[in-house]
Design a protein that fits this description.
Strand order of the largest sheet: 2-1-5-4-3
Largest sheet: 5 strands, antiparallel
CATH architecture of the largest domain: 2-Layer Sandwich
Strand content: 25-35%
Structural class: alpha+beta
Number of strands: 34
Distance between the termini: 94 Å
Radius of gyration: 58 Å
Helix content: 25-40%
Number of domains: 6
CATH class of the largest domain: Alpha Beta
């Protein structure tokens, strides 16, 4: 709880306890500024003392309120106090009220600062009655006691030490102490804990500033704490000073404040939007739910706006609501509400007109509930009902309703189609007497209606109907009762089974034909139960298995017809077929599985067995149907055919391999010859002029000497550099086209990498980490492999223009050695990776794109392999795997390692 001094109250008018401390004071409080003085603040008590309203007091001059005879003295003292001179005691003046009557007031004043200017705050006490009492001879003590006893609150007076000097009867009543007990007490004895410290602080404030007010809990003798609004003033005399004050019980006000706070919190925390509008329809209050509901960020965007603009832009609707509020005092209904962004939603508005105690309208209260979801649910329900109506109307079955007497009430389109009558033709007619039901079915219908009356369902039962055109139709009908508007109605569902009845008849005929077909089939057909016991078979099954009659075969286990070596397999196949059928009925079968069967006399023969799961009308498996075909003759023919086929395949395979080997050798030779011829021609035709150019450049360089012009020497250097570059292109082209013959020497991985690194210059920004091992010792063409390794090292440096790290490692991997070159460069895109090893492909500004192709050839000549992995922006890893000791190739003899470039098979002439 926060407190403030009386002289500061007008300057902190926005605080919540301002109304309690100042406007609730029984003493007049006014702040005066300037000279001649004028009031800039006055509380309601000041208005009661003068008879003017607070607004009128602010427009009047202070001079007009002071009696003419007292004005000179008033202005002298006012000037002294304004200049900071202390006042020895309060002053008494005559006051002219608004009605012209003269009264007496006692004024206590103190200097304050108001908006940066020096001002006076005056506390005004009406002493008119005391003056009148003095005039009629009453003693001051008698008058004081009379006045103090009539005060609505407690009165107290104590000295600067807190010792009680004077009090009224209300003080004794509230405190619970007797007069003698109070006389021995200090004012601070009526407070405990923090309240006592607060009281001490406010006493000191009165001593320093002359006045103060505070809300505190006053503790009575029995421990009860009463909330009081206490005001205190400093009273000085020539010899001493004391503090006088009054206290008002604010228990009810506190209770009202709590109730108001609860109500305010309830409105503020309500999930419904709440607004208060003035009588012109402008919003004066909006709770957070309303602000959020309409998409605003704060209530400042809403306050002052016409509620019509946000709630209902239709003027006719707004006029309807206003008219209802004025006539009935309330209005409830759905409206379209507009959000800040212009979007709309449905809300339920409950509006009411708020009136004061005199019955005069003062504002309008609105409650908004977002019912958009409910509207959507209602619309969805309507759509669902419409869909249900459509489903019933266009259902494939006839659906109709009748009462318990058999009178037709309604039906769907299929019901009309079933009997050939429109529902309008049958409305109100009794279906038992309308001629659509033969007489033989009437007793059955009457029984069904009796069951429906008892709440029972019936059917499905078959009935025959006579259609409007005289034809008959058979329907399967089920009925069940429903209650509608307190009456029982019967809903019937009729399904036309005329075609099904005809289909059943045809099915029986078809079954007879099928039995005849099975019986006459040359294949043995056997039906078994789920345990494999024969329950039926055709005549062919009896004959093939060497039995004399069906009776001899039926009842036996079908496994006795299978050779012992195949029985386990057959049992497993049947079990698998059953498991597959449980998953999908279409998979529950065997097709043309070859087994060895055994006849009654023990003779074994090869046969093809096909079987499928047999199911009942409900789809449940009840057994198996097996078809057996004797394939003895066919198997003998297949064995001979397979023997001839194998011989032919061997001959064709041998001849095909001879042809493929010859063709591949021819292609290799032709392509190698073509590329070698081109390389030789290019080398001869280009190197001759290059030699001439090189000699001419050397001659000019010698002729000009060291004193030649700088620009001319630079041109000669450029010519020599380009001659070297052109000669390297010719060398790469010729090296790529010729066969590679390796000259193997023994070395170690670490030595190999060290020699390769010495051939290149490591940039300052790049960290080279060598993790290669001294083992195992390997046989490789050192010079060629140094070229490979140095090429990969230089490429890695070029991939890290801003610096980075290159890690080279090796490890033994079975009979191979694996080298890894891992850089942290820019990486290689997927498109470039796909063409990385292709000859004549390059991403560099200069070069023919043979570097990596030649490296790949050298690695393959060592019977090795190379792979690459790369992530753009993270780096690239090249992995080279070569044998510790390559095996000699057959075409080169035991000690020749020759490699034909695989890429020659795909190199196109246009490259």
């Amino acid at each position: 709880m926060r407190f403030q001094t009386a002289h500061a109250l007008p300057l902190r008018k926005s605080e919540a306890n301002y109304r309690v401390l100042v406007e609730g004071s029984l003493q007049g409080i006014v702040v005066v500024l300037g000279f001649p003085p004028h009031a800039v603040f006055a509380n309601p008590a000041m208005a009661r003392i003068t008879g003017y309203s607070t607004e009128e007091l602010l427009s009047l001059s202070i001079e007009s309120l002071i009696h003419p005879d007292d004005r000179a003295s008033f202005f002298d003292r006012f000037r002294d106090r304004l200049e900071g001179k202390p006042a020895s005691s309060p002053f008494e003046y005559r006051l002219i009220r608004k009605d012209g009557q003269v009264g007496w007031v006692e004024i206590f004043s103190s200097q304050i600062e108001y908006n940066g200017k020096s001002a006076l705050q005056a506390t005004i006490i009406d002493i008119t009655k005391r003056k009148e009492a003095e005039q009629i001879g009453l003693t001051e003590k008698t008058f004081s006691e009379s006045v103090l006893s009539s005060l609505p609150g407690i009165f107290y007076m104590f000295d600067s030490t807190g010792k009680m000097l004077r009090w009224n009867r209300n003080f004794e009543s509230v405190s619970g102490y007797s007069s003698d007990e109070i006389a021995r007490m200090s004012f601070l004895d009526f407070f405990v804990g923090e309240e006592k410290e607060l009281a001490q602080e406010k006493i000191q404030e009165v001593l320093e500033k002359g006045a103060s007010s505070v809300e505190a809990k006053f503790v009575s003798k029995d421990g009860h704490q009463t909330p009081l609004l206490l005001t205190g003033l400093l009273f000085r005399s020539e010899n001493s000073s004391c503090l006088i004050g009054m206290g008002i019980d604010i228990t009810q006000r506190k209770k009202a404040e709590r109730e108001l706070l609860i109500k305010d919190n309830a409105i503020s925390s309500s999930i419904d939007g709440m607004t208060i509008s003035d009588l012109q329809g402008n919003v004066t209050y909006a709770n957070p739910a309303f602000v959020k509901m309409l998409g605003y960020s704060s209530d400042k965007e809403v306050l002052g706006k016409p509620i019509e603009e946000m709630a209902q832009k239709s003027k006719e609707k707004a006029d309807e609501i206003v008219k209802a509020l004025k006539t009935k005092g309330w209005w409830t209904g759905e409206i379209t509400t507009t959000r800040k962004d212009g979007s709309k939603f449905y809300s339920m508005l409950s509006g009411s007109l708020v009136k004061d105690e005199a019955g005069k309208p003062i504002c309008m209260l609105g409650s908004f509930v977002d019912v958009t979801d409910r509207k959507k649910e209602e619309e969805a329900l309507k759509e669902s009902e419409e869909r249900l109506r459509q489903l019933i109307e266009y259902a494939p079955d006839a659906i109709y309703t009748n009462d318990l007497e058999g009178n037709f009430l309604d039906g769907n389109k299929q019901a009309e189609a079933l009997i050939g009558f429109k529902k309008e033709e049958l409305a109100g007619k009794n279906m038992l007497k309308a001629g659509i039901l033969p007489e033989k079915y009437v007793p059955k219908v009457m029984q069904d209606l009796m069951k429906n009356m008892q709440g029972q369902r019936t059917g499905p039962d078959e009935y025959e109907f006579i259609r409007k055109d005289g034809t008959s139709v058979t329907a399967e009908i089920s009925t069940f009762p429903v209650k509608r508007e307190g009456k029982i109605e019967v809903i019937g569902i009729a399904r036309d089974v005329t075609e099904r009845k005809q289909a059943d008849k045809k099915l029986k005929e078809s079954e007879e034909k099928l039995r005849n077909t099975i019986e006459s089939s040359p294949d043995a057909i056997t039906i078994t139960d789920l345990e494999g016991i024969v329950v039926d078979c055709n005549q062919a099954s009896v004959s093939v298995n060497g039995f004399s009659s069906k009776g001899e075969l039926i009842g036996k286990s079908s496994l006795t017809l299978i050779a012992k070596k195949d029985r386990t397999s057959v049992r497993a196949q049947y079990q698998r077929a059953m498991e597959n059928y449980k998953i999908t009925a279409e998979a529950g079968f065997l097709r043309n599985v070859l087994y060895t069967l055994i006849k009654k006399d023990g003779h074994e023969y090869p046969a093809e067995l096909s079987a499928s799961v047999l199911k009942d009308a409900s789809g449940n498996p009840v057994g198996f149907v097996s078809v057996v075909r004797d394939v003895t003759e066919r198997k003998q023919m297949q064995e001979k055919l397979e023997e001839y086929s194998q011989q032919l395949e061997k001959m064709v395979e041998h001849r095909t391999k001879q042809f493929e080997d010859a063709q591949q050798q021819l292609v290799k030779v032709e392509r190698l010859a073509a590329i070698g011829q081109v390389a030789a021609m290019v080398g001869h035709d280009l190197r001759n002029p290059l030699t001439g150019i090189s000699g001419a450049a050397y001659y000019l360089k010698m002729k000009l000497g060291p004193n030649a012009e700088k620009k001319m020497l630079e041109m000669l250097y450029l010519i020599e550099k380009d001659i070297q570059y052109s000669n390297k292109i010719i060398t790469d082209l010729m090296e790529y086209s010729r066969e590679i013959k390796l000259e193997l020497t023994e070395t170690t991985p670490k030595s190999m990498v060290a020699e390769s690194v010495s051939l290149v210059q490591v940039p300052e920004k790049i960290q080279l980490i060598d993790l290669t091992q001294n083992e195992p010792r390997i046989k490789i063409d050192v010079d060629r492999m140094k070229r490979v390794f140095s090429n990969f090292i230089k490429n890695a440096f070029e991939a890290m223009p801003q610096g980075g790290k290159l890690t080279i490692s090796s490890r033994a991997l079975g009979g191979d050695v694996e080298f890894k070159f891992i850089d942290s460069g820019v990486g290689i895109t997927k498109e470039v990776l796909e063409r990385l090893w292709a000859p004549f492909f390059t991403t560099k500004a200069k070069g023919m794109g043979l570097g990596l192709a030649i490296c790949k050839r050298i690695i393959e000549a060592h019977q090795g392999r190379i792979s690459v992995e790369s992530i753009v922006g993270e780096g690239t890893t090249f992995t080279i795997t070569i044998p510790i000791e390559p095996k000699p190739r057959a075409e080169g003899g035991e000690k020749a390692w020759v490699n034909m470039p695989e890429s020659l098979l795909s190199t196109t002439t246009k490259a």
